[in-house]
Amino acid sequence: MKRGLRLAAQGARRRTALSNGTNRQMSLYVPPPVQITSLPNKIRVATEATPGHFGALGVYVDAGSRYESPRFSGCSHILDRMAWKSTHTQSADAISAQIDALGGQFLCSSSRETIMYQASHFTHDVPAALGIIADTIQNSLFLPEEMEAQRDAAAYEVREVSAKPEMILPEIIHSVAYKDNTLGNPLLCPEDRIDKIDGPLLREFMRTWFRPERMVIAGAGMPHAELVELAEKHFGEMSLPAAASQKVPTHLLNGGPKSQPSLYKSLTTAATSFLHAPDEPSFSNLANARARYTGGYLYLPRPDLELTHLYVAFEGVPIHDPDIYALATMQILLGGGGSFSAGGPGKGMYSRLYTHILNHHPQVDHCAAFHHIYTDSSLFGINTMLHLSTTPMQVLPIIAHQFAMLLYKTVPAGELQRAKNQLKSSLVMALESRAVEVEDLGRQVLVHGRKIDVEEMCEKIDSIDAADMRRVAGRVFGESGSKPTLVVMGRWPLQEPEKVLASYGVGRS
What we know:
Elements: H1 11-19, E1 34-38, E2 44-48, E3 54-61, H2 75-81, H3 92-102, E4 105-110, E5 115-122, H4 126-138, H5 144-162, H6 165-177, H7 191-194, H8 199-209, E6 215-220, H9 224-235, H10 244-247, H11 250-253, H12 283-288, E7 296-301, E8 307-316, H13 324-334, E9 336-338, H14 352-358, E10 364-373, E11 378-387, H15 392-408, H16 413-430, H17 434-448, H18 454-462, H19 466-477, E12 485-490, H20 497-502
Parallel strand pairs: 2-6, 7-12
Antiparallel strand pairs: 1-2, 3-5, 3-6, 4-5, 8-11, 8-12, 9-10, 10-11
Helix pairs in contact: 4-9, 13-16, 15-19, 16-18
């Protein structure tokens, strides 16, 4: 989507415009054209005209763990593991051989708000690539022996992730921040659910959520007409549910209300996709449920760990909110990382969490800012790892001070410009990848209904000033912002952490 930044002939002019917030002379850059077509059944087909020897395409579905009811809990995770297995038309071995023959890469991934099937391939292999994806979406058999193998693999994956604090704690912080709702649903299938998920349940889950109006087919490096024709061939017969226009979340169709915009086993094999248990939420209720941030504190005693882990987070703004760019810049400004770094330019060594915490507090082994962004919320915060000689109560004031600095002191112009430049460069460099380019296109059309060009994003980043940073900081973690979410894993708990934060004017009590 943003491949135009690669054009060497315009490189000098473009680098000046991207690195200097006062220079907006971007008119010489012509973004690659994006075309979007809606099929009669409301599947959207989007392409970006970026020439090259290799192309990429994907199918992106507005589904994921945030939409899972208790009955479907874990289905998204198991479903992505069942991709490229046997279908009504060919065996898993035949599909694997076909993928290998293409010389490309195929993947399926589920997140809280999206399930995606994606392929990178030679440009002449577009028909074969989309054919494989369509086959696995529409014709999967979910054979018992293949299901059993993936259950074992999923159980191993869950155990491995759970044993590594740095991997499981992002999941736990979500479950505390959005307790018992939407974004707080587990991304990985709970262990006690793995054996309960079978083929009939997965088929019912797909019938419920894989609806044409909730799907986008995106491609990069191929003619738009070709992808539209192939999409009609493979997906044109998918039926549009009755009154679908009333069941699709409005914030995914038109960007949401202007006042608050929003940037994710059946117990019987005879149940149909339209029958619900007495207390089972309806499709409409699940699809339109807004993320409800709760905040809270959780202590997980783990005396066996060599490091104590502390997470402090607040509810941020959603993807559609104009302040999302200021909050993303704030994450880069805080930066951080591990206590050991190979060093060298461009590693974020001048970010605040390095210069103010890691360089001055040797008891802190790791300290970094994080920002998880969703359609109707986001989670912004700082995570740290501490040596056993230090308790979380000793480090929490240090973290609170970093939040307070953003609330009550103006960010120096040079520091702000550096953070903005780093954000823009990381955005542009990531989009040099064809796979990232097509995923970005598919997700943007799924969420925004259009493609936001990198030039527009960079202009919005350039427009951020120090007053915006203080205002957004107050909105997110000031006294009128959200309640904090805190998670500690290790030997030492926190004592009245909200009072500690409040003493620095951080977080709503």
